[in-house]
Amino acid sequence: MRILITNDDGINAPGLEALEAIAAELAGPKGEVWTVAPAFEQSGVAHCISYVHPTLIAQLGPRRYAAEGTPADCVLAAIADVLKGNPPDLVLSGVNRGNNSGENVMYSGTIGGAMEAALQGLPAIALSQYMGPKTAALNDPFEAARVHGPALIRQLLEHGDWNADQDFRLFYNINFPPCDAASVKGVRVVAQGRRQGVRFEVEPYHAPNGRRFLWVMGGSQTAPATPGSDVDVNMQGYISLTPMRPDLTCHASLAGLRGALEKG
């Protein structure tokens, strides 16, 4: 198996090293693991692509590249340049330092990398590690992802509904709970949730030269969320698995709007 890995925390992020280990176990001794990851941290860029300027790419070692762009740029660079004519069998994005559950999905570069792979017709999985007091006390805060990731991905490759949508290939979002590997209770297949009362905000800051800047601030990651959602089961100690697709249409609203707005 040929696996492409990327992330949004950057080429030197510890979560990428964890993903390299997961990918190597999945690929096996006869497989290949290719890395094309951002040269610098790209957290919060979502599915952004560098459409108006070129992306510098450099080879750092065998099958290892850094691109001065977003995770989606990295996937495009891998498919159209680094692995041109010989695409990967699987794309893994992560392991993100911090969760991509709930509303975080909409901002996540980790999700953006997996989504771009799906748009390119490739099987893709985003992996993120929820952080908290229990993971902070571990020598390896990515322990849950590292231990449970390979087996779960194998099961997903075997049982995943990769072609449920005729127009958009599905991809999958996995979040590991904020605990050590032994404390993980299992896996739950759930929908994306929403934390109650959590919004991104900005906090003003004045530099010594008097200029005014704004820091973007996130909300509480432990706020109550939709029962049975990804956030909810993560906080209970379960791995969340959510099937996703790059289609933002609210299909439930189509019929009602057609009846009200279409005239003939």
From TrEMBL:
Keyword match Metal-binding: yes
UniProt xrefs under Gene3D superfamilies: Survival protein SurE-like phosphatase/nucleotidase
Catalytic activity: a ribonucleoside 5'-phosphate + H2O = a ribonucleoside + phosphate
The protein's required cofactors: a divalent metal cation
Entry note: cofactor: Binds 1 divalent metal cation per subunit.
Residue stretches spanning the membrane: none
Keyword set, alphabetical order: Cytoplasm, Hydrolase, Metal-binding, Nucleotide-binding
Domain Survival protein SurE-like phosphatase/nucleotidase: 3-196
EC number(s) recorded for this UniProt protein: 3.1.3.5
Subcellular location: Cytoplasm
Binding-site positions, a divalent metal cation: D8, D9, S43, N96
Chief localization: cytoplasm
UniProt-listed InterPro entries: SurE, SurE-like_Pase/nucleotidase, SurE-like_sf
Gene Ontology molecular functions: 3'-nucleotidase activity
PANTHER family: 5'-NUCLEOTIDASE SURE, 5'_3'-NUCLEOTIDASE SURE
Membership in a protein family: Belongs to the SurE nucleotidase family.
The protein's role, per its UniProt record: Nucleotidase that shows phosphatase activity on nucleoside 5'-monophosphates.
Protein name: 5'-nucleotidase SurE
Source organism per UniProt: Paracoccus mangrovi
